[in-house]
Design goal:
One of its GO terms (cellular component) is nucleus. Keywords: Cytoplasm, Nucleus, Repeat, WD repeat. It comes from Myxobolus squamalis (Myxosporean). The chain has one domain: Methylamine Dehydrogenase, Chain H, CATH 2.130.10. The chain is 0% helix and 48% strand. It contains no helices and 15 strands. Strands 1-2-3-4 form a 4-stranded antiparallel beta sheet, with no helix packed on it. Strand 9 and strand 10 form a beta hairpin. The two termini are 29 Å apart.
Length: 166
């Protein structure tokens, strides 16, 4: 892989940008901000093409699906939302009151979603019906972010100076 450090453009929002993630096809960037807005940007045209609104507090994290036009957003309102970029509008496809505190991270894991929170839990949800968690993992410290490797192992960094792998 060759990196291209050529300046492309600058994109402006009204609130502090908390996260930005490339779409699976590399044509768009989805950004979240503290003003509760989620914006999809067309990188080539350097303009916003969709604005998603629904969270009641700051949007903290975005995760784009690796092969579909879906993305997740997490928020200080304790929720995860599943959005479909093909609609270009709100409301979200699915809303889940997932945790008892800020949800700092979420990721797609096959047909499931995994979320991590300051409430010291990581939870797995079925993507089609996010009513009850399939699994809840309790940790000793608030979860800051998560990542998953190709074998399905999840790495969870925490605020108490260590990380765990499940």
């Amino acid at each position: 892989m060759r990196f291209n450090f050529r300046y492309i453009n600058r994109f402006y929002t009204l609130g502090t940008v908390s996260f930005a993630e490339w779409s699976f096809d590399g044509n768009y960037v989805v950004s979240s901000s503290w003003d509760r807005n989620i914006i999809v940007w067309d990188v080539e045209k350097a303009k916003s093409i969709a604005n998603y609104i629904g969270h009641e507090e700051e949007v903290l994290y975005i995760c784009c699906h690796p092969s579909q036009s879906l993305f997740l957003s997490t928020s200080a309102d304790s929720s995860i939302r599943l959005w479909d970029m093909r609609t270009g509008t709100s409301p979200s496809v699915e809303i889940c009151k997932a945790h008892n505190g800020d949800v700092n991270s979420a990721l797609f894991a096959g047909h499931n979603i995994i979320s991590g929170s300051v409430d010291k839990t990581a939870k797995m949800w079925e993507m089609r019906s996010m009513r009850e968690p399939l699994v809840t993992l309790k940790t000793s410290s608030p979860i800051t972010r998560m990542s998953m490797n190709s074998d399905g192992y999840i790495c969870i960094p925490m605020r108490n100076n260590h990380f765990r792998i499940w």
